Amino acid sequence: MTAPGNKVLIATLNLVTSDLLAPGDIGLSETAWLKLGLQDGAQVELAHPAPLNSLSAVRSKIYGKVLDQKALDSIISDVSLGKFSDIHLSAFLTASAAHSQDASEVLALTRAMVKIGKSLDWSRTPIIDKHCVGGLPGNRTTPIVVAICVAAGLTMPKTSSRAITSPAGTADTMETLAPVELSLAAMRRVVESVGGCIVWGGAVALSPVDDVLIRIERALDIDSDGQLVASVLSKKVAAGSSHLVIDMPVGTTAKVRSKVAADRLGSLFKQVSNELGLNLRVIQTDGSQPVGRGIGPALEARDVLAVLTGSSDRASDLETRAIRLAGELLELGNAARAGEGVGMAADIIASGLAWRAFQSICDAQGGMRVPPIAAHQHPVETHRSGRVASIDNRRLAKAAKLAGAPASKAAGIDLHVSLGSVVEANAPLFTVHAQTHGELSYALEYIQNEAAIISVEEAP
Amino acid sequence: MTAPGNKVLIATLNLVTSDLLAPGDIGLSETAWLKLGLQDGAQVELAHPAPLNSLSAVRSKIYGKVLDQKALDSIISDVSLGKFSDIHLSAFLTASAAHSQDASEVLALTRAMVKIGKSLDWSRTPIIDKHCVGGLPGNRTTPIVVAICVAAGLTMPKTSSRAITSPAGTADTMETLAPVELSLAAMRRVVESVGGCIVWGGAVALSPVDDVLIRIERALDIDSDGQLVASVLSKKVAAGSSHLVIDMPVGTTAKVRSKVAADRLGSLFKQVSNELGLNLRVIQTDGSQPVGRGIGPALEARDVLAVLTGSSDRASDLETRAIRLAGELLELGNAARAGEGVGMAADIIASGLAWRAFQSICDAQGGMRVPPIAAHQHPVETHRSGRVASIDNRRLAKAAKLAGAPASKAAGIDLHVSLGSVVEANAPLFTVHAQTHGELSYALEYIQNEAAIISVEEAP
């Protein structure tokens, strides 16, 4: 449908045989009225949609061809115009995962994704940024790292995504502490006034197809290397970042399962970012167990606050990781000399400067919030006494998702132990949090039917 | 949702806050009422759906694993229960196309598809069958072949599919001549009374997931070797066939583009059918140009009738192909001696016996119909005189689809030339048939924007 001002919409045409509409008249949904910006009585033109030529490129990918810039531009442009159905989106992502994408294709995909979105240009440098490739429940260092770096005077306009296959993304967690759906103009005002932000990337449309693709990847529970690198780097380029630290947790049940896989993914990140002129450092971190205690938006937010306020029961592993990453960024951004970043980051937390910076960011984003607490909480106990020998991140994350996270912000898992903890029989290993009884049962049923998600070995 | 009698339905739960329903009450769609066979006031139980474990198998396939019987059983069973969304169906089919499936996997897939459907057992032998792998517009030999074989006394319970990526499947074409949506019981009555039938396989539920998968393949315009073999053989096994001839047109713009591809596909057909105890013969045929003159359900039906009735303007290429295939089947089914099948088939047509058998089949299926004629017809002319040098099957098929085929039965393309035809400038090469003005324009626009679909070379 073409409306005045050449506005175009792809719609389903339903024929009406009653007298609801006069012959030649057309009715539109609220969404269509808004998108076309129409007045009542306006003239519109109808035609069949043009055949979707970018599907040939999708078929080439299915059969293993490396796609070039032109092919990826046509696919991403059609995706952004809403021309791809779920069937087509799923085929594109599945084919991309099935045939691993080389650096040239990932670079082309990244550029295609940047082209169709808005881009930010900051009239200062450096613009620092961080990203965690995920897969480690509770690894919510971002709000702490941003607070430290902003307190040190660096500029850090952080956009985060919502969960892809995990129980919480940084945007989901941060949303329990402050509004994260800011416009691009509002985001710019926040960064210019306080030096940094932590907002949802989808709302500022820096890489508008990213959330379209993520919805499909979540349904399939896949996240391929090429798609991951393009998704991350397209948002960083569009956000105007110049210096970037990648946190890459490595562990048998993390997203990146081995050193070999981490090196391969890190190398892809470096090849593509070099071509894009991004200064990037990849940090491989321990991915053997969750970070902090909470898994799920509100429970993770609680852990973040404990570290920032220096609470006596704060999770020291979360604090240590945040300090390490912030230290790298302080050095990369020339706020600290080589070797002095970690010490400086620790001082900024201990002095309360990071907590003050975080509050000012929340205030600037629309006001600080108190994370919700779940209506239903149910402890899961160990049957025997001994020492915690292993924790399955994937199944723990799955249980948190079945309990309702991330859609239900208060839902998730609260851990009471970590690797090596000594426990008595019948002591709680973790507590399931859920907002409804149904979701609680759903998670508990999964936990009971699985082999121990946290295994306890008898002490010798 | 679980209803009395352990009937289960997966549904979306919408919460109502108005007084439309009393607390604890639930309303259902018409479809849900029917599926659960409920009475007003019945008690139902609600629970979250169990997590879809077969998705792990789909993910394994994405990453290139060969799936075993157990994995494919779980996928196909979940598909048949409606548990796969379009996203999941598309990922399964895309991954299967991206990593070519070996014979063991295709055999397992075929068996999984047979298991979840009904199967026919005929108390006689042989039960003969044919299948064309498609890709050649207008290649509508099936009704003629069935008529010949039935006239020769063989039993041929033919189930056909609707179009996957073509402008017409045999079921679409046959539907313009007689009802094709018969129940399994009705199909059995037809075959027992007249010796054969030509019905839509989807209606008799011999391979119920097949049409679910075909809907997705059509949207993606892909049809992989493994999926094709499993789709065909699962229906043949379920239909109780013992002897099968495969018509495989080979040509640069047919579905099978080269001798190498044809040999590979033929070998996969043979390996899998051997394991299934099916006696199968693959016939490679000329796929360089369309067969007959019509492309689209009604236009192809017209060509079929012309051959059966011995009309003077019948398409001789269609007749020759049908006789060749019928000849192979007459020999395979022991109705003719080796080398005598083709002659016998020709005699059966010439004598009018095939036409009589075809009429009795149509009558038994519910009564013969007259194919519709399109409201709009528009000739497409050659700009210069000369000789027809090439015909692009794919783009001709696409034009027929844009004109409305197969959903619009009368729509399609009527060819006036074939390879080698000598034409004068401004002579019509083909006529586009469409039921609506919009569809006609849509097809003509495509034809005008493409390089010549039928190329004419000036005589030297």
From TrEMBL, chains A, B:
Name the catalysed reactions. thymidine + phosphate = 2-deoxy-alpha-D-ribose 1-phosphate + thymine
**Pfam families (alphabetical):** Glycos_trans_3N, Glycos_transf_3, PYNP_C
| Domain Pyrimidine nucleoside phosphorylase C-terminal: residue ranges | 387-454
Record keywords:
Glycosyltransferase, Transferase
UniProt xrefs under InterPro entries: Glycosyl_Trfase_fam3 (IPR000312), Glycosyl_Trfase_fam3_N_dom (IPR017459), Glycosyl_Trfase_fam3_N_dom_sf (IPR036320), Nuc_phospho_transferase (IPR035902), PYNP-like_C_sf (IPR036566), PYNP_C (IPR013102), Pyrmidine_PPase_CS (IPR017872), Thym_Pase_Put (IPR028579)
What top-level branch of life does the organism fall under?
Bacteria
Its GO biological process annotations read: pyrimidine nucleobase metabolic process; pyrimidine nucleoside metabolic process
Q: Which GO terms describe its molecular function?
A: 1,4-alpha-oligoglucan phosphorylase activity; thymidine phosphorylase activity
The EC number on file is: 2.4.2.4
Provide the Gene Ontology terms for cellular component: cytosol
Q: Which PANTHER family match?
A: THYMIDINE PHOSPHORYLASE
User: Which family does this protein fall into?
Assistant: Belongs to the thymidine/pyrimidine-nucleoside phosphorylase family. Type 2 subfamily.
Q: What is this protein called?
A: Putative thymidine phosphorylase
Please name the taxonomic classification of the source.
Answer: Bacteria, Pseudomonadati, Pseudomonadota, Alphaproteobacteria, Maricaulales
